Amino acid sequence: MPRSPRPRPNPLLWVWYCFGGRLPQRYRAWVLHDVTCRTWVLRHLSHSLVQISPGLLFLLLPGPLWISAMAVLGGVIIALWYSLSYMEHTSEHRLYKHGYPLGTGYATRQEAQADVRAAKAANYARIYRSTEQ
Asked: Which of 14, 19, 20, 58 is buried most, with the most CB atoms less than 10 Å from its CB?
């Protein structure tokens, strides 16, 4: 089955998208791919890192560098913690802003993993649900 073309946004549009901006309609298929591909968690983390990158400017404040560095490190850890906690909701909201119904991302990821989950379930049943004694 031929795949439909998915134009990628240029770097400036990608940064806009990372900060929560809505891309033009021609990138709609790319947004679905971005939120549902095999590496969607890593992509989400890269978006989060771009969002918190302006916080690195705190390293330029006067005073001991180690204090600023520890403050930035603490902020990065907390930001990534919250980002990972809400990544499914954030991904669904990204899709919703681009015209997809809520639940599309989850359903697409589940559909893509259906074979793997079925194989794991069959293996579990074979090992632990065996009626042979």
From this structure: 14
Q: Note the pLDDT of residue 116.
A: 86
Terminal-residue alpha carbon distance, the chain? 47
- pLDDT score at 1: 43
- Distances in Å between the Cα of 38 and the Cα atoms of 34, 74, 104, 105, 127 are 9, 29, 15, 12, 28
* Tokens describing residue 79: 């930001």
Tokens of 122: 């069959």
Angle at 54 between CA 50 and CA 56, to 5 degrees: 105
**Helix (H), strand (E) at residue 99:** none
Q: Which of 49, 67, 48 has the alpha carbon at shortest distance from 58?
A: 67
Closest CA to 43 of 82, 87, 81: 87
C-beta separation of 76 from 52 below 8 A: yes
Which tens digits make up the pLDDT trace of 95-127?
Answer: 999 999 999 999 999 998 888 888 888 899 888
Q: Dihedral of CA 7/18/91/85: which sign? A: positive
